[in-house]
TrEMBL record:
InterPro entries per UniProt: DHC (IPR026983), Dynein_heavy_tail (IPR013594)
GO molecular function annotations of the record: dynein intermediate chain binding; dynein light intermediate chain binding
Organism taxonomic ancestry: Eukaryota, Metazoa, Chordata, Craniata, Vertebrata
Naturally occurring in which organism (per UniProt): Dicrurus megarhynchus
Alphabetical list of PANTHER family matching this protein: CYTOPLASMIC DYNEIN 1 HEAVY CHAIN 1, MALE FERTILITY FACTOR KL5
A GO cellular component entry from the record: axonemal dynein complex
Protein name as annotated: DYH5 protein
GO biological process, one term: microtubule-based movement
Residue ranges occupied by any Dynein heavy chain tail domain in the UniProt entry: 5-166
Amino acid sequence: TEVTEKLEEVVMIWTKQIRQVLVESEQIRREADDVGPSAELEHWKSRMSSFNSLLDEIKSSRVKKIISILQAVRSKTLKQWKELDGSITIAANEAKDNVRYLYTLDKFFGPLANASPVMMEHIPSLMNTVCMIYCTSPYYNTSEHMTSLFLKITNQMINTCKTYLCEG
């Protein structure tokens, strides 16, 4: 029982740390007012990396051994652990999926940032791709995500026009 108590303490510490990561990941991002759409892709790539690292740690042999010992003694700490494991898996899947969809927009980021009004010819294709993401992505099709993306696209267009006007 002493070993079980120590292992439960370890799992409770992990649980607290994982909860903190999840809470921080859900907090509202502070970004500059003029940040472009490539920042959205970078955010999700960073988030994907963090959650994948966490998943790798959770799936390590050391963690699996401790969890299996606690399962054998029917520890009550495992209920919280399983919920968090599921939450981390969902967050990792969301980040991976969002990166995959946002990469389809990556080809537009260069022309959009180009200091020339020629970017206008790319707008219909860009909007079609955003529409495709909205219609097919299981995670990114929320008004919050779409608003953030459109805001960044608009910011980039404004920055491009400002640069063009200042150079001309």
